Structure formats: C-alpha cells, structure tokens
Amino acid sequence: MWNVLLSFSGLVALIQLLFLPFFPESPPYLLLQKEDKAGCLKAMKQLWGEGNYQTEFDDLMKEKAITKGTKIMNVLEVLRERSVYPQLCTMLLLLLSLQLCGLKIFSTANLQESIIPYVSLGVSVSELISIIFCSSIIDRFGRRTLLCGGYLLMALILVLLETSLLLSDQFLWLRYCSVILIFLFIIAYGIGP
C-alpha cells in the first residue's frame, strides 16, 4: 500500500492546484513586488475578513522602504555570488549526508524488507518532532545557539555512527544502534541547521 501513501502527497498537490486560482495573492507580494497598494488592502480583507488593517499595511510599507535599494536576484545570480558559497556547500553536504547515510545504515542493519517502510516512516516522524520542538525553543535560545548546538550534536552523532558501522560486524547489536543514531542525527539536524 506504499504506492497509495506516496500518491497522497500528489493528491494534496492536485487539490492545491485546483483551489489556488480562487485565492488572492499574498498581501506582502502585492505590495512589495507588484507595488499594488489597493490590491494589497483588498487581499487583506479577502483573507482576514472585514476590519482595519492599517497597522499591518504600515508594517509592510516600512519593510518596503527598508528593502527599496535591495536587488532581487534570481537563482543563477545567487549561484554566481561568491559570498554564498560557504552556505551552499554546507547545505549540500548536509543534504547529501542525510540522503546517503540512511541508505547505508538500513542495508547494514540487515533489516527485514517488511520493517524498512516503518523505519522510513519513523525517520519522517522524527523530523517532524524535531521541527516542532525547534519552533517552540528557537525564541528562547536563538538561532545561533541552535545552529552551533545542532552542528556539534550532528558531528558527535556522525562519529558515533561511523564507529558503530565499523564495529557492526563484531557486535550485531550495533547495527540497530546505527539506525537509532540516524534518528538522532535527523532530530539534531531539525533542531539546529
């Protein structure tokens, strides 16, 4: 039944595509990108109901004034910008490590074919839990602390993961520890980076 489960996201996307034309554009988009003040106020009323949205409108006008001299870059321009290379490399390394380490661990752990879908579901659930947890503590600790802590946790978990993979032939129970470490890695990733 995994084909049904995977097609669910396609069904949700189809529903969004069908109903999207009936919704107004985002008020910040209308004001900041299109410079349509009347359309922005109309969209606010359509989205939020009748009321006075002058405070929100004034906040958007302040944001527009602040970003007036800022050039909006497309994807190719961003990729050509040398100042973002460290961030892009970090993101690519993290994404690749997330994608590649799980495949090797699940095959190394010799999990039964019938269990692997549940492990994959568990990975998604652990990612969801970490995102919810992060959104509740980010104001208390700040982004910088969560980023540094997340990277440190991820580095520690990767060291433990590599150790458990190296010793998994000698100690069979370490194979299952590797799967647990993958879950912890994803949680650390969701909380921090």
From TrEMBL:
GO terms for cellular component: plasma membrane. Residues 1-17 form the signal peptide. Residues 1-193 form the Major facilitator superfamily (MFS) profile domain. The keyword Signal applies. It is found in: Membrane. Its main location: membrane. This is GTR9 protein. It comes from Acrocephalus arundinaceus. The lineage of its organism: Eukaryota, Metazoa, Chordata, Craniata, Vertebrata.
